[in-house]
Amino acid sequence: MVDFRNDYLSLNVPSVDSSGDKRRKIHLKRSWNQLSKCQKTTLLCCVLMIIFGILNFLNQKDEALVLANTNEQLESKYAVKNFIEAPKLVEDALEHVELKKDVELESKSLRNNVENNHVAIKGDSKFLGPTTDKQKAVVKAFKHAWKGYKKFAWGHDHLKPISETYNDWFGLGLTIVDSLDTMFIMGLKDEYNEGRDWVEKHLNFDINRDVNLFEVTIRVLGGLLSIYHFSKDDMFLKKATELADRLLPCFGSESGIPYSDINLFTRKPHAPKWSPDSSTSEVTTIQLEFRDLSRVTGNPKYEEAVYNVSRLIHKLEKKDGLVPIFINANTGQFRSYATITIGARGDSYYEYLLKQWVQTGKMLDSLKDDYLESIRGIEKHLLRKTEPNGYVFIGELLAGGKEFKPKMDHLTCYLPGTLALGVHNGLPNEHWTLALDLLNTCYQTYAQQPTFLAPEITYFNIQSENTKPKDMYVKSNDAHNLLRPEFIESLWYMYQLTGNATYQDWGWRIFRGFENYTRVLNGYTSIGNVKNAANVRPKDMMESFFLSETLKYLYLLFSDDPKLLDLDKFVVNSEAHPLPIYLN
């Protein structure tokens, strides 16, 4: 027992000899009084630190017990019932949701889809390495980027090639996981084995780190599933399943619309720190991956969680199929007066409407109907032509649709490829004309810059009375290039569906732009100014999507076999990870 009184320390030590006890107390008191004031203070601090240390240890044990109980509750909440009971699962999840008749019919068939999968892929896909000079140039670029990443950022998310260090966003080795299927497709066996080895031994999801549901789904979950389908390596599927189980609590909101962020260790989801709302594109760009995981594991819980989101969004009121870019996970409602755009925070909502329909063998008509309505909405509200040359572009609606802004993100340049994919799958032929018009405009955003690299954002002139008309212009703050893939993605779709070598020529010019203005000693870097070839202002960042998407699409584009990755067998997620098409 520790007893503080009268400015001395009394240590009561139990003993059967009471006289000895008194002598020890007198001795301790005398020793204490002989100490200097500094020594007394030091001793008191040490005793207090020991006490606080013991109390903190006991408190941590209590917190660990609470955390364990919390995780058990979360796991129980998202545990799957016996698979024999699965027909009730979809109806249970939707008991408070009113749905249209056709959507109800679709939901009743969900378990059968998971049980009776028929995949369009027959046999193992074989990728034998580059067969053309342009493909070889892309492989050389990949190996250059990989060498720098391996030397200065191995196991981390992104390479900073100029400062010879790394950036960690989530701490999940994003560049490795994101690039595995690229290396497989390119036939880079040594690099692939290095990456596979790291994933098996070091990819750990049991980390006290907040991650973004959307980004981790398209990059990590999508990357693991894609390489699982190519390699048939069960290790990747095991990792994918573990990750998905840690992400599932995001769907536990009151509305069923997922929270945007989650801590991988505590499995506690939450809204982003900067807003109470989730981004619409983020909560609607996770369906391909979770559905695929259900199909390969036979466990319907992943598909049910994400398909419920699609059903809820389907039910909400929209502006001729167009959606605001923010939605609240608690209320399940769009934010009033939010921007409507096909660019950032809106883009992949429209992409995944079509791709989900394709992924499921064109069986989910509500998705197709929403997609077709959205294209009509784009044509009605967002489509304009520039002055004086009449370039077709897609602008934005501000204040909930009241004000048009003649601005287009580079992200929007994914749309020509998506439109072409829709036409390939039997949707209206007039979508092809729109795809060609938008593709040409996107190409001009590259061709009109001295670097032959597009800016992040382009503004357009729609005023015919302008005395010095210029169709498009770039503001200084928007002149950066992040090594993005969207336009090259569209070129690949167009080339695969037409065989027109013009699209390869355009892609080669862009590749040369990357080589001339973004290649540095240890990799590739985003740049701050595409408008000045003499001073591009390197930004010292190589994000994982450069290897996962940009170089992969360039490699596929330059193939002498347009069917190297067959669009009748694969649907490609928003991070360029191919997943199989199911025929039901």
From TrEMBL:
<feature type="active site">
    <location>
        <position position="347"/>
    </location>
</feature>
<keyword id="KW-0326">Glycosidase</keyword>
<feature type="active site" description="Proton donor">
    <location>
        <position position="456"/>
    </location>
</feature>
<dbReference type="GO" id="GO:0004571">
    <property type="term" value="F:mannosyl-oligosaccharide 1,2-alpha-mannosidase activity"/>
</dbReference>
<dbReference type="InterPro" id="IPR036026">
    <property type="entry name" value="Seven-hairpin_glycosidases"/>
</dbReference>
<protein>
    <recommendedName>
        <fullName>alpha-1,2-Mannosidase</fullName>
        <ecNumber>3.2.1.-</ecNumber>
    </recommendedName>
</protein>
<keyword id="KW-0256">Endoplasmic reticulum</keyword>
<feature type="binding site">
    <location>
        <position position="574"/>
    </location>
    <ligand>
        <name>Ca(2+)</name>
    </ligand>
</feature>
<dbReference type="Pfam" id="PF01532">
    <property type="entry name" value="Glyco_hydro_47"/>
</dbReference>
<dbReference type="GO" id="GO:0005975">
    <property type="term" value="P:carbohydrate metabolic process"/>
</dbReference>
<keyword id="KW-1015">Disulfide bond</keyword>
<feature type="active site">
    <location>
        <position position="486"/>
    </location>
</feature>
<dbReference type="InterPro" id="IPR050749">
    <property type="entry name" value="Glycosyl_Hydrolase_47"/>
</dbReference>
<dbReference type="GO" id="GO:0005789">
    <property type="term" value="C:endoplasmic reticulum membrane"/>
</dbReference>
<keyword id="KW-0812">Transmembrane</keyword>
<comment type="similarity">
    <text>Belongs to the glycosyl hydrolase 47 family.</text>
</comment>
<keyword id="KW-0479">Metal-binding</keyword>
<keyword id="KW-0106">Calcium</keyword>
<keyword id="KW-1133">Transmembrane helix</keyword>
<dbReference type="InterPro" id="IPR001382">
    <property type="entry name" value="Glyco_hydro_47"/>
</dbReference>
<dbReference type="GO" id="GO:0010498">
    <property type="term" value="P:proteasomal protein catabolic process"/>
</dbReference>
<keyword id="KW-0472">Membrane</keyword>
<keyword id="KW-0735">Signal-anchor</keyword>
<dbReference type="GO" id="GO:0005509">
    <property type="term" value="F:calcium ion binding"/>
</dbReference>
<comment type="function">
    <text>Involved in glycoprotein quality control targeting of misfolded glycoproteins for degradation. It primarily trims a single alpha-1,2-linked mannose residue from Man(9)GlcNAc(2) to produce Man(8)GlcNAc(2), but at high enzyme concentrations, as found in the ER quality control compartment (ERQC), it further trims the carbohydrates to Man(5-6)GlcNAc(2).</text>
</comment>
<comment type="pathway">
    <text>Protein modification; protein glycosylation.</text>
</comment>
<feature type="disulfide bond">
    <location>
        <begin position="413"/>
        <end position="442"/>
    </location>
</feature>
<keyword id="KW-0378">Hydrolase</keyword>
<dbReference type="GO" id="GO:0034976">
    <property type="term" value="P:response to endoplasmic reticulum stress"/>
</dbReference>
<dbReference type="InterPro" id="IPR012341">
    <property type="entry name" value="6hp_glycosidase-like_sf"/>
</dbReference>
<feature type="active site" description="Proton donor">
    <location>
        <position position="215"/>
    </location>
</feature>
